């Protein structure tokens, strides 16, 4: 926002479904190299998987916060191993919503940034040696593909699900459930091990993949089913492709790669559909960010599915959003204009014109016929609007002695909504303008504009010049 002063340090927090992280940079570092962003290295001192931490929280039996990320996982595993975890609360893979009050961050210092935008900013500033494409990334038009964990059939966790399904096909759902319930620590170790191997998958390697899994998985199966896992595999389609002895599972490379297949083809199909759409068709540059963009199989699939496209992938694709958010914090004015995603307006009640309005919208106020629920358009969908460049309008009270004026702000995907009650219209919120105590009809000047990442509505009452402002997130 414009009133946010130049900062000495900017920190960004990225809450993802599976992984979360934070990063920061000082003004002087930013000035020498804007892409020089520090992540917290204490956070990844343990099992070095990534600079982000798993999105999980451990709470004490009384509900108080205990730990976050790898710490939470480690502590929960330790508790489970001693069978002391029963009363503790462990949450993982949830999409967090950052509430500034709860986070203890002063609202005037907090800016919500939009993920694809920050990722783009970061990539635009990277030198070509840190990008996997020929030359610098300075294309005018490109598509940002944020491949994270969530997104149903398109998320990286879809691969984890396929792995689970494979285990279930071998040992059966009841055995797997029993193992998960009785061996919480073991289950988490299994997921971690898969995550490590998942990140190492390569298109061209044919050596077998070995996973070290909890012995309890093997023991639980043999106890329940009275046969060895080796015998179980003989009866599945995995015969000859998996060797599972005690705590080692060895998989054919091809079989391991197959776990990614559905997810990857869903993503490429979806992109192919998008690239057929008008307005998107001419896009020839694809910018891949998000953790799953680091997956070599995924990268290859994009390159082969879209051979004519220029595919740009930053070196640490999973951190692009986070690093870009730090850059955005230093210079929010990087975004100079935006294309309105919706038509934005405010409800008004103009004099009733029987030629224009249906009878059921007629109301009588102070002896005059008025039309209720009319959508007064401020910004039209598709319009390019410079940030902080306001669209203005005047609103007049319809009754004398009004104590306040209620401006309800609406958004609609239609170009010319007539009434705010149309099914496509959604109320974003309202601005309450307090009015001075007089019998006169009062005028209120309204300004609607885009900030860096929010819609701002400013209302000023004319006589007292008192201002009322509201912000609406684009998220
Ligand atoms: N090198 C890699 N190879 C394969 N998969 C990877 C790699 N690195 C990360 N992933 C996968 O990417 C996903 C995490 O990506 P990211 O951190 O961008 O998601 P997120 O921010 O948690 O999720 P979202 O943005 O959807 O809320 C996980 O499914 C993880 O297993
Ligand atoms: Mg993310």
Automatic annotation (TrEMBL):
Taxonomic superkingdom: Eukaryota
Query: Which PANTHER family does the record match to this protein?
Result: ALPHA KINASE/ELONGATION FACTOR 2 KINASE, HEAT SHOCK 70 KDA PROTEIN 12A
**Protein name, per record:** Uncharacterized protein
What broad taxonomic lineage does this protein's source fall under?
Answer: Eukaryota, Metazoa, Spiralia, Lophotrochozoa, Mollusca
